[in-house]
Amino acid sequence: MRSTVRMNDGWVFHEGFEPEWSSELRPGGRVRLPHTAVELPFGYFDEGSYQRRFCYQKVIAWTPEFAEREVSLLFDGAMANSTVFLNGRKVSSHRDGYTPFEARLTGGLKKGENVVTVRIDGTENPDIPPFGGQIDYLTYAGIYRDVWLRVAPPVSIERLKVETPDALGASGTAMVRVDIRDAHRAGGDIRLAATLLDPGGDAIGRTEAVTCDSSAVLQFAGPGKVALWDLDSPELYRVIVDLACPAGTDRVQTNFGYRTAEFTPDGFLLNGKPVGIRGLNRHQSFPHVGYAAGRRVQERDAEILKRKLGCNLVRTSHYPQSPWFLDHCDRVGLLVFEEIPGWQHIGGAAWKRDSVQNVRRMIQRDWNHPSIVLWGVRINESADDHDFYAETNALARMLDPTRQTAGVRNFPCSEFLEDVYTMNDFVLGSETLPGANHGRIALRRQAEVTGLNRTVPYLVTEFNGHMYPTKSTDPEERQIEHVTRHLQVLDAAGGDPQVSGCIGWCMADYNTHCDFGSGDRICHHGVLDMHRDPKFAAYAYASQRDPAAGVVLTPVTFWARGERSIGGAIPLMILTNCEEVEYRIGNGITGRAYPDRAAFPNLEHPPVIIDDRHIPRREQDRWGMEWFGLELTGFVGGDPVRTMRLAADPVPVRLGVSTDFPELLASEKDHVPVRVRVLDQAGNPLPHFNEPLTVRVVGPARLVGPDLLAFRGGRAAFWLESVGERGCVEIEVAVRRLAPARLKLDAV
């Protein structure tokens, strides 16, 4: 039977690489994986600092378990060009930073100590996708995902693929294809036995087969009606496959879900029922550590997208992302559109061959995830290339005929080789560009984009983003326009039966090259900032949830007389999923306002707009009048469900400090974000408070980044990293004119 264990601890890290390093362990600093080769400042840095060679080394001691077994290191991801040596001999290389690879150690291990050396080249090599042009994101060098040591029998299970051809029927049939490694070494028949487990872990089916080939298909006749994987009830089943032959035994298991997913000319169907796609694009990067964030942070992003922002789909722009993230998308019921690495540029013949292999590796890694409903087999926003994209589509359909293909473009009338026409539609705001011959429109009609004389499955895969970058600290008028643009596209997509939905650009701000962004090496395109703190636009998405999943009542205002041009705070947009909102200004003006269905007829929960219809112009915010506070109360079913207050005279009263997790995990590389707020007397962050903040951490944790921070809009955040030790972690944050705030975490 195989064993697979994490090999994340005890690596020695070196900057640079020399050939003689491959054969002996050099003294150096010990690091824990996942690891980024260079920790970058939050902004304003030289992105070339990690575009060079680095070296990781680890000693693997011989154990009797290795004898007559297959021993391998499995790398979930290393950026970007990796070569693995065992005791000075090259055993593996991999020219991609986003897909997994294996370094086979069998035959090179000796009794005693064995030195594994990994050379990482972070250079943006134009021969390797996604490089060759300018890309609007960073590719942080390092072994930034987990590494595993697998010890397996000479004949083993290479991979499983589960298909459910009767997901909506009465039988619950499941078919399991078992790919067998080195079947020719079996020494006799290979016996396979598969067990089917329901979401509660109970065995509900068993099937067996005998083969001497490298692949076999086992079929469960059907346990009867099954629980479907759906957005609200993402039920996961499990298949366990046992292999037995004269050469040994093996066991592999995988989760899967019973579900159907189809993009049609009339919209997207999940389990035969229409679902309007409302999603966001995600980059897998975080402040300072880049890609090298731990498991729980990856999982937390799926939680934020589904449960905080109310999205039902995420696009993994523009590369395959962490297995931990995808596993959690399965668990929480978040659909996924996954695509191969790339950004606009298509390289030469060898580059294309690597890209085709990325299609293969992506699909074979992830084909059992029920959350994944679409394979992206085209380089994002690239030009048409018939032969290249005919090959990527054909390979995807051969490997996984159960899912449709897509290819994201940003220009109309592109050759349509995929199953779903996916388009980055940035028409909103383009009316101001030279040569524009249209007014302000939210989305183009499908026929205008495709140039086809028929309706096809169609999905908008990006909008807004660079057309209206917005920082958390930007003025209120820009925040309102940012929110409005997101709402207008969501509304337009909801009102067009030929659009399956839309995916906004993007979830969170991200570091980028100097060729893009705001000059600070940050693209401020997100509805969240890089720390995953919400901007006002986040509530454009969150407010579309059912109130039972969380009440939203967020006015898009800093509530000050002189914040906007000319002055005042009317009209006032309130993002909410309440049925009505009661407002009170000071002790005088009161009333109720309702969702603006005239302006946003297709949104499930339009914003509430308080304007001249509610407050006579003569009573609105004239200079020289006293400024009053605001109180809002949201109602659902006639009952008050949320009240918020905005002070007329906000002053800093206290520091608020919180974390996303109640503890820090010592057993693995773990990250915990800590959020700090300067709060006024009503408990709201002060949007223009920008003084310095000091951070002090005592105990078994490392502060990621500097210990002296500046508030951005009354908010600050930093990250703690586990160091492999247990104990109490004490955190103190302080600003000069307020009492310090303290927080304790247990490293467990």
Compile the SSE list and pairings.
Blueprint: E1 3-6, E2 11-15, E3 29-31, E4 53-61, E5 70-75, E6 81-86, E7 89-94, E8 101-104, E9 113-121, E10 147-152, E11 156-163, E12 174-181, E13 190-197, E14 203-211, E15 215-220, E16 237-245, E17 248-256, E18 261-264, E19 267-270, E20 273-275, E21 277-281, H1 295-308, E22 313-316, H2 323-332, E23 335-339, H3 349-366, E24 372-376, H4 386-399, E25 404-409, E26 420-424, H5 446-450, E27 458-462, H6 476-494, E28 501-504, E29 510-511, E30 522-523, H7 538-542, E31 553-555, E32 572-576, E33 580-585, E34 589-593, E35 608-610, E36 630-636, E37 639-646, E38 654-659, E39 663-664, E40 671-679, E41 692-698, E42 701-704, E43 708-710, E44 715-722, E45 727-734, E46 741-747
Helix pairs in contact: 1-2, 3-4
How does this structure look, described?
With 748 residues, the protein is mainly beta. Helices cover 11% and strands 35% of the residues. The chain is built from 7 helices and 46 strands. Strand 16 (237-245) and strand 17 (248-256) form a beta hairpin. Helix 1 runs parallel beside helix 2 (323-332) and helix 3 (349-366) runs parallel beside helix 4. It starts with a strand and ends with a strand. The model has no long low-confidence stretch (mean pLDDT 94).
